[in-house]
Amino acid sequence: MRVILVLLLVISLTASGQKFQGKATYKTHRNIDIKIQEGGGAPNNEIQKALHEQLKKRFQKTYTLSFTKSKSTYVQNKEIQPNVKKGDVKIMIMGNGAGDDVLYKNISTKGYVNKREISGKRFLIQDKLPVHDWKMSSETKKIGKYMCYKATRSREVEKSSFMMTDGETEEKKKKITITTTAWYTPEIPISNGPGMHWGLPGLILEVHEGKQSIVCSELIVNPSKKIKITIPKKGKKVTQEKFDKIMKEKSEEMIERFKNNRKSTNGGSLDIRIQG
Fold first, then answer.
1. Between 20 and 145, whose confidence is greater?
2. pTM, full prediction
């Protein structure tokens, strides 16, 4: 009789796991440092302060992770984005995401499809999920009603920064180490999380990576309305490596256009650096 009870329990847990689904809302925040070198066209302190505040708002976004046991979509919620413009100064941010971008992840196959739009062109990035070397910790904290555990990982990346003075552009490259801290809850038994964060024994509710923070503000498990996970299909299919190359080319084109515009308008010296 005991054996039968155990078997029934296992069958029940398996069935409930197959139906497991939910939605998590995440809010992002990024600390912004703006350095503006003085020159003929440099904005005054009041304008610099206004730019800083508007840039902070530009990076404050809300996303929804819709998930089942092994699949998910991560989309930005519709919001009115501020136009970062004050006086004669305008800042453009490449690769900051568009409102109709969709990230689809399949944990079972360890693959993803990321729909991105750059300069009016739609791309479908299809590739394997990166393997994260998480270091588990016994440190815990409560996020909402869920007990969460801490995990960290570090990676070395090459960072490029651009400086523009009197229409001349200088690119500087340096290698930096980025540390990612994640808080996950085994009470939500899926190996998923916001963005490309995944690979832990529970849903990731909070991430701190460099100067960016992602925090879950709302979590609904097994809602009455069934969640449908759809793979994005429209766009030019590319690998992540190919898309990164396209992004680099677009960034260089944007810098060249900005440089030519400043020359044609006899602009003064203006150097804006956004450090993430």
1. 145
2. 0.76
